[in-house]
Specification:
Elements (H helix, E strand, L loop, with lengths): L5 E10 L5 E4 L2 H6 L12 E4 L7 H9 L6 E5 L13 E5 H6 L12 E4 L2 E9 L2 E5 L9 E11 L2 H13 L5 E5 L2 E6 L9 H16 L4 E5 L5 H23 L1
Parallel strand pairs: 11-12
Antiparallel strand pairs: 1-2, 1-3, 1-9, 4-9, 5-8, 6-7, 7-8, 10-11
């Protein structure tokens, strides 16, 4: 695949040492490993080949991959999320840990903790001490990808739609073009996303890098609350009718 190509990738990600499934885009595989999540929409990963957004070992493999071909790939820790850095592991007192935790009952080994603005994982808790690992949760692990490029996106409008969805997690964007300029009507679900402002800022860069976009406009459409108002009116009328019926009795 050439750099800049936008593709849909189905994959299963395993821990090489244990053989455990870590993540998958395929629903049947998730069910097979008792990892199925109800309500999740299992769809292929949308990515820009060579963009640098994926781990280096996977990026390199995509550059030489062909569409619709099953590929099995093992990636050493150094080419995945890196080796564990001992300097990123800190031992603190339980008293200090508790000062940064709202609910002590939420603490568990392997669980996330935030200490003075740093996000880490609780790896040890005993004898009045706690050990916090600030390495990436998958640092030090060799990984195995079983993957296939199931689609190569050629159409410009489809490229933009795929990039919008994959970078926000929202569906239903309406896209229109005027030369190199792009206008995007934001779906209703994104209007209530607290991360929307940051997402839109990043999307401008993504669209310029991937499709050479010029001016990028985001349009928010706030629908009138007609349905809600009508429902309230119907309830009000119903209450009045009930009142009249009681009076007649």
């Amino acid at each position: 695949m050439e750099e800049g190509t936008i593709v849909h990738v189905e994959y299963d990600l395993y821990n090489v040492e244990s053989g455990d499934l870590i993540e998958t885009t395929r629903e049947d595989v998730a069910k097979e490993h008792d990892m199925h999540q109800e309500g999740r929409n299992y769809t292929p990963l949308v990515c820009v080949v060579g963009s640098g957004n994926l781990i280096s070992g996977f990026e390199e493999s995509l550059l030489s991959a062909k569409a619709n071909k099953d590929i099995s790939l093992e990636i050493a820790a150094v080419d995945a999320y890196g080796e564990k850095d001992p300097e990123q592991i800190e031992t603190i007192s339980i008293d200090k840990l508790l000062r940064h935790v709202r609910d002590p009952k939420s603490l568990y080994i392997g669980g996330p903790v935030s200490i003075e603005g740093r996000q880490g994982t609780l790896s040890y808790l005993a004898a009045g001490r706690a050990r916090i690992d600030y390495n990436h949760p998958m640092a030090g692990r060799a990984l195995k990808y079983d993957y296939k490029i199931v689609k190569v996106i050629e159409d410009k409008e489809e490229k933009v739609a795929a990039l919008l969805q994959s970078n926000t997690g929202h569906e239903g964007f309406e896209v229109s073009f005027e030369g190199e300029d792009i206008s995007v009507i934001v779906p209703q679900t994104m209007l209530f996303d607290t991360n929307a402002a940051m997402q839109k800022f990043r999307l401008v860069t993504v669209l310029r890098d991937a499709v050479g976009a010029g001016k990028v406009s985001f349009v928010e459409v706030h629908e009138p609350r007609v349905a809600a108002d009508e429902e309230e009116e119907e309830e009000h009328v119903h209450d009045e009718n009930c009142g009249h019926e009681l009076e007649e009795e």
